[in-house]
Design goal:
Layout: H1 2-16, H2 24-33, H3 44-55, E1 62-64, E2 70-72, E3 77-78, H4 107-117, H5 127-132
Antiparallel strand pairs: 1-2, 2-3
Helix pairs in contact: 2-3
Length: 147
């Protein structure tokens, strides 16, 4: 009986940490709750557009870069500067392991993204945002979402 209870507990822990692919409006709602709309002057639509082009709203997204670093999570946060992947040199300015950015709980991702956007580059820190979202009409990213 104890073994069954432990197995069920372990199963619940695994489910709690599983990755997730958000829908556009689901992510918009989550980011709005976290105070991202207007954060450092960037609209909610900017954050949604960036997350789409960086990860396709997938919290488990990982992308290896030519410099040996890796981008992690829904915002593709880079290990060279922002998190520690224990494989490549890092400044770890968000003070977290990169694996924390891969779960369905995007609280750590949001905290780190808020830190990143406070730097002088702002959202230009994300190349995909610069290429696909910057300076464009972005209202379509939140249209139809009940915010």
């Amino acid at each position: 009986m104890k073994a069954l209870a432990l197995l069920l507990l372990f199963g619940c822990l695994i489910v709690a940490n599983e990755a997730k692919v958000f829908s556009r409006c689901e992510l918009a709602y989550k980011l709005q709750e976290a105070g991202m709309d207007g954060y450092e002057g960037y609209s909610l639509a900017n954050w949604i557009c960036m997350a789409f082009f960086e990860s396709g709203f997938n919290t488990a997204a990982e992308d290896d870069n030519a410099d040996g670093s890796t981008d992690y999570g829904i915002f593709q946060i880079n290990s060279r500067v922002w998190c520690n992947n224990h494989r490549s040199p890092t400044e770890n300015l968000c003070y977290m392991p990169c694996t924390d950015l891969l779960s369905s709980d995007i609280t750590d991702d949001i905290i780190c993204a808020k830190r990143i956007v406070k730097d002088p580059k702002g959202m230009d820190a994300w190349e995909d945002w610069t290429m696909h979202c910057k300076g464009r009409e972005l209202s379509e990213w939140v249209d139809g979402c009940d915010l």
